[in-house]
Design brief:
This protein is of the alpha+beta class. It has two domains: 93 residues, Ribosomal Protein L25, Chain P (Beta Barrel); 96 residues, Ribosomal protein L25, C-terminal domain (RNA Polymerase Alpha Subunit, Chain A, domain 2, Beta Complex). It has a six-stranded mixed barrel with strand order 1-3-2-6-5-4. The longest helix is centred in the last third of the chain and has 17 residues. The mean pLDDT is 87. Keywords: Ribonucleoprotein, Ribosomal protein, RNA-binding, rRNA-binding.
């Protein structure tokens, strides 16, 4: 689980496009904290601090503390918008969470020990079906990533979600099937060569 961090914020009295543009001119971005059966809270955050957190990785899977005028609120980022041209943060939505909160998050999948996979050594390719897996998990137990060990996997082998160790209490949002996360596929050239050889053999017959 990633380390919790703190961001300082101030409440926003005014909302709307004009107010948001003014905030951005002053190095701030508009954000909203919602959930936990409380009224949404409009806040402003440092653009630089939030953008650094987003680019550092793990932003969407890390619980944060928002210090709003001295009140500390535990939150989980749920969405953010980037300017498509200038790549700076435009807006962030945060969900209030407690230690008992159950949340749904997209968790990245990392692959290790590629050099210990016989299939990859033979020239096979790692075909990643899911780069992320959506989990139902406690807000205090969100993994930074899930790990797939490729040791011993050969061409034709498949990695299912049941093959991945999940944190205690975590369950996949897709619960009705043991879905595929990755496969070890044969090389396209090999497949084409085999098909060509078969065709030649049939022609000779």
């Amino acid at each position: 689980m990633s380390q919790t961090y703190e961001l300082k914020a101030e409440t926003r009295e005014r909302v709307g496009k004009g107010s948001s543009r003014e905030l951005r001119r002053n190095g701030l971005i508009p954000a909203v904290i919602y959930g936990d059966k409380q009224a949404p809270l409009s806040i402003a955050l440092s653009t630089k601090e939030v953008t650094m957190k987003i680019h550092a990785g793990g932003f969407m899977t890390t619980v944060a503390i928002i210090n709003v005028n001295g009140e500390k609120i535990r939150v989980l980022p749920k969405d953010y918008q980037l300017d498509p041209v200038r790549d700076f943060t435009m807006h962030v939505d945060f969900l209030r969470v407690s230690k008992d909160s159950q949340v749904s998050v997209q968790v990245p999948v990392h692959f290790e020990n590629e050099e210990k996979s016989p299939g990859l050594k033979r020239g096979g390719a790692l075909n990643i079906v899911r780069h992320e897996v959506e989990l139902n998990v406690s807000a205090d137990n969100i993994p930074e990533f899930l790990t797939v060990d490729l040791t011993g996997l050969n061409i034709g082998d498949t990695v299912h979600i049941s093959d991945i160790k999940l944190p205690a209490g975590a369950t996949p949002v897709i619960a009705d099937r043991d879905f595929t996360v990755a496969t070890i596929a044969g090389r396209v050239m090999e497949a084409e060569e085999e098909a060509a050889e078969e065709a030649e053999g049939e022609a000779e017959e």
